[in-house]
Design goal:
elongated; homodimer; 3 helices
Chain lengths: ~130, ~130
Amino acid sequence: MMESPFGKHILAEYFECECTYLDSEAAIRNLMLEAASRSGATIVGNIFHHFSPQGVSGVVVIAESHLAIHTWPEFRYASADLFTCGTRVDPWIGFEYLKEKLQSKKWVSKEITRGTAEEELASSACGGKAVSG
Amino acid sequence: MMESPFGKHILAEYFECECTYLDSEAAIRNLMLEAASRSGATIVGNIFHHFSPQGVSGVVVIAESHLAIHTWPEFRYASADLFTCGTRVDPWIGFEYLKEKLQSKKWVSKEITRGTAEEELASSACGGKAVSG
């Protein structure tokens, strides 16, 4: 079962990164899995793709939503999304971990609230699971 | 090669959805692949997961970034991300398609600009590919 639909979504732009990881699918996958673990997330799957001639895209699906990354080695730039629902996971730990590992010298981050509190949604349900009372 | 690092990211919340698709991994996958195609995106991979007892999460990785969805049938709610780089893809087509298919009666959308123009990044590069002149 997924976490509460109320979540935090960090949109991160990492500029002026070191080149070490940016073009390696394996390295970026490891970074993202580690970012998910450190944030306290439960990993349910992942998919990564290396572009020709360069660049990596990938997503870690977690029980609490997802973490995504896209890298542009030609611009020493990576964008990342850390979207986590519920209250047990802290996406900012993942954000800091990625910043440190990518050695980004300039970054921008935004936190957006996703969904809404369960109480506000409690009157809606599929499959006869509506809350009564 | 991935598109320009300058992109649009739509964060969508679909409330009061019909139940038809929300708990079906196959249906949600098809919707998302179709949303990507209709937006003009080039699909490079996808991953979907059905949660127990209910809910689906999934991501379509595209050459222009990604489309992601998380559904909560118990709240008739789905969140979606449509993140597309470059100028050839229109994520709003995907947004409208999902809204229509999910039959959402109430929705919230936000468009966020990601990355930055290539010109501003041109002085940075990995692997000796720096732009000169």
